[in-house]
Design goal:
signal, mainly beta, Jelly Rolls, Methylamine Dehydrogenase, Chain H, 5 helices, elongated, binds 2-acetamido-2-deoxy-beta-D-glucopyranose, binds calcium ion, 8-stranded antiparallel β-sheet, single chain, 3 domains
């Protein structure tokens, strides 16, 4: 956006009206929440559904008749009838893939009597168009300003800021560099909105209805909203103003791909807003979101059952299930399959690993899969396909080393072999998406005795429907990969444990730049076994689990399992992670972040203190200025991996033991 726009004082920019005594803008000069105007806070409007996608709530309007999603412009333009000459529009949306040529309206301002489109915003597969009516001596005509390839069709949420000032039109996506267009027709200095109506998600007609999800639609008179929104740690969801019903929605922060919470949207479950609706057979399995109390309820039988009462507080933890596993378990992955249920996959040391299904409040054995010293499972999806990849540490019967990707067969209701990938003592798989493309990265731990080998990133080839090698990254005893995004940037962190002589090696953070990952920052680590990224509000943290301090040259002086693990925090200005807190741990192997109500927690897997595997694992609570403070001490034996998950009945933790064939499910009791 032009610097000029930012410098000029707000008042001068707002469309003034020359009244008898003084200049006065027609609207308030604050963000005007257009979406909130059409979706009353009790959510009573017909045909509007609240749905969740990727952990974020939005409205689906397509079932609502256009007139329901409209209101007279006079409601906002209370003082006079002129649209501001300079303004910006902020919209957060998630769009479906549109066929070529199809256009959908996000917003329209229509002069009702003449049925004239005064102002419109619509998009197609390739463009975003801003339309407005301008008038000159020859009469009124419609002007269209088109922005190419905004990249909205990747099934992600995006926040667009359209800023208009005379003949300058600019569009910024996710706080990225704005595309500026200088048009030969300026936006009219005095566009009358007399007798006009705003239509959200349509152009007053049935044709061109918006079929995606919308979370934010705001008009900011007089200024460029990018100044208020950007930079943002969560640029795809940067907020200026969000309707009340969507504020502080229940569920975990969206840094975790929570498949359990994604489920209502994927299956098109219905969420009702407003005051307590009836719950009978007809509403069974439907959700009700109580915006006032911020609670989400599920109709079970004839009762509304609280799914995630946001104000719940963790009181204590109790044992819920002792899960006898095939053998010692090195990793657990909990995931949901839409329409089927909740599952846990265990990576077991001996011949078979297992998949369990949550049935009547317990994990029950569902499928066994032959693995070779399996270390971890990773669940991911590509479109409608559901996959599960296992990291095999050992060779198969024929001495070959493979890690394997399995695919869910909706017909057999089982996972079946999909692709084998040659790996070297694989420890971990991480799945992620960059610019709409799917990737998998493997942590190759060692080849023979050599720990300094490459770990490999694979890219999904939509043509061959297989993963193919894309990039190799040198690692030292790689143990874990963790992917995360900050605004438009994608990061990949590796935990390096051992270089052949020492566990005191650097672990690295890489950033995606022009088609490959490049080194961004290095961290001193001691036998690093896990990276965990998490967000608290706008803050971004990265925690490393240090398992062992050891050096061949100094093994007598320095061979310790009791050492600090470190939490780092991203300083956005400095573009670097800085140490936030040291936490004493005993051969820490995993961190897991979870939230209960409005509180945030970290649990660490402490596995060994140098003498015994019977050590306590600790739950820490986020206490702001104090950082993380130990609140619960849980006796564990050779603790290897923690996972947090939610069901309709409550919130749970599960942990596995690397030293005994027993995993435990713990229930989080709340008050
Ligand atoms: C391993 O790391 C130690 C300590 O950082 C260093 O002294 C040693 O040279 C490294 N060894 C190899 C093989 O890179
Ligand atoms: C890896 O994938 C990226 C993104 O598609 C691509 O730009 C790059 O050329 C690929 N690299 C290799 C070596 O295939
Ligand atoms: C021993 O290990 C600790 C980490 O636990 C490290 O801070 C210290 O520098 C090491 N001492 C020597 C002599 O290498
Ligand atoms: C972030 O980094 C900047 C630039 O180095 C520094 O001035 C600022 O104090 C840091 N902020 C915090 C919270 O540490
Ligand atoms: Ca990982
Ligand atoms: Ca972790
Ligand atoms: Ca874990």
């Amino acid at each position: 956006m032009s610097a000029l726009l930012m410098c000029v004082a707000l008042l001068a920019l707002a469309t003034p009206r020359l009244s008898a005594q003084h200049w006065e803008p027609c609207t308030d000069l604050r963000p005007l929440d257009i979406l909130a105007e059409v979706v009353p806070s009790n959510g009573a409007a017909g045909g509007i559904r609240m749905v969740q996608a990727q952990g974020t709530w939005g409205f689906q309007l397509s079932a609502a008749a256009p007139h329901i999603m409209s209101f007279p412009a006079s409601r906002m333009f209370s003082r006079c009838d002129l649209f501001p000459e300079e303004f910006s529009i902020v919209i957060t949306l998630k769009v479906p893939n549109l066929p070529p040529k199809r256009n959908e309206y996000l917003l329209a301002l229509v002069a009702e009597e003449k049925d004239a489109l005064l102002l419109g915003l619509r998009y197609s597969a390739a463009q975003v168009h801003f339309l407005f009516l301008s008038e000159d001596l020859a009469g009124p005509w419609q002007t269209r300003v088109s922005f190419r390839s905004p990249g909205l069709m990747d099934s992600q949420w995006h926040t667009l800021v359209l800023a208009v000032s005379q003949e300058s039109f600019s569009l910024a996506v996710d706080c990225g560099l704005p595309v500026d267009i200088m048009a030969d027709v300026p936006f009219p200095p005095a566009l009358s909105v007399q007798g006009a109506r705003f239509f959200v998600g349509s152009r007053r007609r049935a044709k061109g209805l918006f079929t995606g999800l919308v979370r934010q639609l705001v008009l900011l008179p007089g200024s460029d909203a990018t100044q208020k929104l950007c930079p943002s740690t969560n640029a795809q969801l940067a907020e200026l103003s969000i309707p009340r019903a969507l504020q502080g929605p229940p569920g975990k922060p969206d840094d975790k791909d929570n498949e359990v919470l994604k489920y209502p949207y994927e299956t098109g479950m219905k969420v009702t807003l407003g005051s307590r609706p009836p719950c009978s057979k007809a509403e069974d399995a439907q959700f009700w979101f109580d915006a006032a109390q911020r609670g989400l309820y599920l109709c079970v039988g004839t009762e509304w059952v609280s799914v995630l009462a946001a104000k719940a507080k963790l009181d204590y933890v109790e044992e819920h299930q002792r899960l006898h596993t095939n053998s010692e378990t090195l990793g657990i992955e909990v995931f949901g399959i839409p329409g089927v249920g909740l599952f846990a996959a265990t990576a077991n040391r001996k011949a078979r690993s297992a998949i369990y299904k949550w049935t009547d409040g317990k994990f029950v054995s569902y499928q066994n899969i032959a693995t070779h010293q399996a270390q971890s499972w990773r669940h991911f999806t590509i479109g409608k396909k559901i996959f599960l990849a296992v990291a095999n540490f050992g060779p198969n019967e024929r001495g070959q080393e493979f890690s394997v990707i399995y695919k869910w067969s909706p017909r057999k209701l089982k996972f079946t072999l999909y692709q084998r990938i040659a790996t070297h003592s694989a420890r971990d798989w991480e799945a992620f998406k960059v610019d709409g493309e799917h990737f998998l990265v493997v942590a190759n731990h060692r080849e023979g005795d050599n720990h300094n080998i490459d770990s490999v990133i694979y890219k999904w080839n939509p043509g061959s429907q297989l993963f193919e090698a894309n990039q190799s990254i040198a690692t030292s005893g790689a143990y874990d990969w963790e992917f995360f995004t900050v605004g438009p940037y994608s990061f990949l962190a590796v935990a390096n444990t051992f270089n052949g002589t020492s566990t005191q090696v650097q672990s690295h953070l890489y950033i995606w730049l022009v088609g490959s990952f490049q080194l961004f920052q290095s961290f001193p680590t001691f036998g690093a076994a896990d990276w965990e990224v998490f967000r608290i509000g706008e803050r971004i943290f990265l925690a490393v689990a240090n398992s062992h301090s050891y050096d061949v040259a100094m093994q007598v002086q320095n061979n310790s399992y009791v050492l600090s693990s470190v939490i780092y925090e991203l300083n956005i200005t400095a573009q670097t992670f800085v140490k936030f807190q040291d936490i004493p741990t005993c051969s820490a192997l995993d961190w897991e972040f979870f939230s209960v109500g409005e509180d945030h927690f970290l649990v660490v897997a402490n596995s060994f203190d140098g003498n015994t595997f019977s050590v306590n694992s600790i739950i820490y609570r986020w206490q702001g200025y104090e950082g993380f403070v130990a609140v619960h001490s849980l006796p564990t034996y050779g603790c290897r991996d923690w996972e947090a998950f939610d069901t309709t009945a409550g919130s749970y933790l599960i942990y596995s033991s690397a030293k005994e064939p027993l995993a435990r499910v713990l229930r989080l009791r709340t008050v």
